[in-house]
Structure formats: C-alpha cells, structure tokens
Design goal:
Helices cover 35% and strands 17% of the residues. The chain is globular and about 55 Å long. By secondary structure, it is α/β, with parallel strands linked by helices. Helix 1 packs parallel to helix 5 and helix 5 packs across helix 6. The strands form 5 sheets. An 8-stranded parallel barrel has the order 6-7-8-9-10-11-12-13, surrounded by 5 helices. Strands 1-2 form a two-stranded antiparallel sheet. The two termini are 34 Å apart.
Length: 386
C-alpha cells in the first residue's frame, strides 16, 4: 500500500470525500423505505447526525430542537455557556468583531473562569425542555465536570480533544484514566478524536460507548495547517471501522464510530456512511441554522487557545432553520439542506436499506466526480461550482 517518498521513508496514499464516489448496486430501494436510524447505548435515534460541541453551533435551545427532530446536539462545557450567566451577550460580541480582531477577542472571552454552577444549570435547562442532554469537555476537566453533569441528569458525556489516545504521557499533571473514567461513570461516554486503526482499537477497549473519528477536517479548524497532522476522513473512517469490526468479532460488543468533521453537504455524509461510519458529527452546516447561537459565524474549538490557536472564526451565513437543514424543503442548490433526504435518496439509489448496509457499498477513487461535466456550474459558481 505504501510508496517510497525518499530514502528509507514510505507513505501510503489516503483519501478524502472529494476523491471518491459511490457506485450504484444491483438493486435500488424506495427511499421512503430506507432506515437511516442508528443505535447508541441502547437507544435508537432517527437522525444519525450529531451537532458538534462548538459554541457557534450548540446552545440549550439548539440542543432541545435537535432532540425534537430526532438527533443529538452536544453542548460544550468548556465554552461560553459555562463561563457566562448570559452567553448571548458575548456571542453577539464575537459575531460583530472584525476578521482581524476575532481571534484575539475569542481568546480574551475564553479567559473568564468556568462557573461550575452553570454546568448543572445548562444540563437542567435542556432536561426541563425534554431534550437529550449530551455535554462535552477536554480530558483535563472531565473528572470534575462529568460528576456535575451526571448529577444534573445528563444523558451522555463526551471527552474530546484534538488527538486522544488511551496512553497519554505527562509529568506535569495526572492524565485521565479513560478506562477507569468509563467504568465509574453511569452514563454513556463518547471519546474523541482519533484517526488510526491501532488507536481506535485501544480506545474501544476502554469501555466507551462510541468514538469520534477525525483530526483537523473541520471548516473552522486550522490544526492541519498549524500542526501538519491529520488523515483524510475517508481513509480515517475506513481504518477505524475495520478496528470496530475486529473488536466486535473478538468481544461481541459493537461500539459505533462517528465521523467528525469535513462534511459540507449531503454527498459527504453519504460517503462517510459508505466508509463505515455509524453516525456523523457536523458543525459548519448547523452553524448556518437560524437557531444556531453563532449568528452566522462559526469558530474552531481551539481558536481560543492562548498561545497556539488551531482554529479561526469563519462566516457561514444563515441559510434556513435547523429543520430545513435536516429535512428540507431545500431552497439552495449546494446540497447543504435536507441532509436526511439526501441520505435516504442515496441509500435508495445504492440499494442500501440501512446504515449498516451502506457499509458494504462499492467505493471508487474518482477525483473527477467533482468536475466532470460541471463546467457551467463552476464558471457560474452555482451548485457544485460554489
């Protein structure tokens, strides 16, 4: 698989969404008779799409609306929702900042200390509105915040950092023991992020309920440029899915993997499922919803880092309601609305009746899939030419 790239150094070719295409099979299925639901920790969700734990995407109201529509939205416990009693004021300030000042402003805003009382308050607000309360934080805060969130009634806890391994080394602080953490917490734990077969396998052995796959593909993330690390999402998902399937054969435990980031439109989601994902997590597409707290702006989770930001604020605009983005009707031509309709239609054309059957769809290497016959769209900057 690997090629020589210099004396004594080999590298293998990896693939992203724009470089592959899905091949129709021998049968087709009525899209209305496909089942795109997925199961997480014994509960079935109609929408296999999670909203990323980013301050420009998810607040309490957004999480409640996402729950109503059949999906999961993850609230960031390291962000403005737990630093400010009235986060709307600082979100407005971020939205009104110039491009030149936005990073410095975000860094300043995120220096305010986290108020532990707000962790429980935000969870309680979601639960009182009958929402599914999924919350997230970095490993350093996980032990403390998980206890507070669980006591407040959280349904799921996400431990997330740029790169997560089961064996983190440090002499400056005590690393989080993920196996102990998953065992002691009484609610399901999602761990992220990783991109390789070996690390996926080791993280599955911690007892987690799901894994997030992806390093650096997010629209507002600059990790790949700043640090030079990452694996294109198709290859990362296929490798992680292989580890998941091996773990299932060995233990009988099926642990879902969630492709996180890099998906802009319906076709990207479909390719992620064909690559082996059980669900996907997206940020920028949801940041365009009327209900998103970012007011048409979106910024990376590491944008606020005081010394080495690995994210930036981008303007995505507001295209429609969350329901419109998920279920339509679409009034844009770029595939960013009616994501569930796109998934069902793709499944029907591919002959896949379920997400698990999507895992067996034929994939081909086809970089021309984005440009073949699309010259007018490219020149006029419409549809696939945007």
């Amino acid at each position: 698989m690997a090629e020589w790239i210099g004396m004594g150094k080999r590298a293998r070719r990896c693939y992203g969404f724009d470089e592959i295409a899905l091949v129709p099979g021998r049968i087709t299925v009525n899209p209305e008779e496909t089942d795109a639901s997925w199961e997480f920790s014994g509960k079935r969700f109609a929408v296999p799409i999670m909203a990323a734990a980013m301050d420009g995407v998810v607040d309490v109201k957004f999480a409640v609306e996402m729950s109503r529509l059949g999906g999961i939205a993850v609230l960031n416990l390291d962000g403005v929702q737990t630093r400010y009693d009235n986060p709307q004021e600082v979100l407005e300030e971020i939205a009104n900042a110039s491009s030149q000042d936005s990073t410095n402003l975000i860094q300043k805003i995120y220096t305010a200390p986290i108020k532990e009382k707000l962790v429980a308050k935000r969870v309680d607000e979601i639960k009182k509105a009958s929402g599914y309360a999924a919350v997230s934080c970095i490993p350093q805060n996980a032990a403390k915040f998980a206890s507070l969130a669980q006591e407040a009634g959280a349904d799921c806890f996400v431990v997330q950092s740029t790169v997560t391994t089961a064996n983190h080394l440090s002499t400056k602080y005590k690393p989080l023991n993920l196996t102990k953490f998953c065992k002691e917490l009484k609610i399901p734990v999602i761990i992220g992020n990783c991109v390789t077969y070996g690390v996926t396998l080791e993280l599955l052995e911690t007892g987690c309920s799901a894994l997030l796959i992806g390093v650096g593909p997010g629209a507002a993330c600059t990790t790949r440029g700043v640090l030079g690390i990452g694996v294109p999402q198709v290859t990362a998902t296929i490798d992680a899915a292989s580890a998941r399937d091996f773990y299932y054969k060995k233990t009988g435990k099926y642990i879902p993997i969630i492709t996180d980031g890099g998906m802009r439109k319906g076709g990207d989601l479909c390719k992620a499922f064909a690559s082996g994902a059980d669900a996907v997590m997206i940020g920028s597409a949801f940041a365009r919803a009327k209900e998103a707290p970012g007011r048409g702006f979106h910024w990376g989770m590491a944008t606020s880092h005081g010394n080495l930001p690995r994210g930036t604020r981008i303007e995505v605009g507001i295209s429609g309601s969350l329901e419109q983005i998920l279920f339509g009707p679409a009034d844009v031509d770029d595939g960013s609305q009616n994501l569930m309709g796109a998934l069902a239609t793709s499944m029907g054309a591919l002959g896949a009746r379920s997400i698990k059957e999507m895992h067996f769809v034929e994939i081909i290497i086809a970089p021309s899939i984005q440009t073949e016959g699309k010259i007018f769209q490219v020149v006029q900057r419409v549809g696939m030419g945007k």
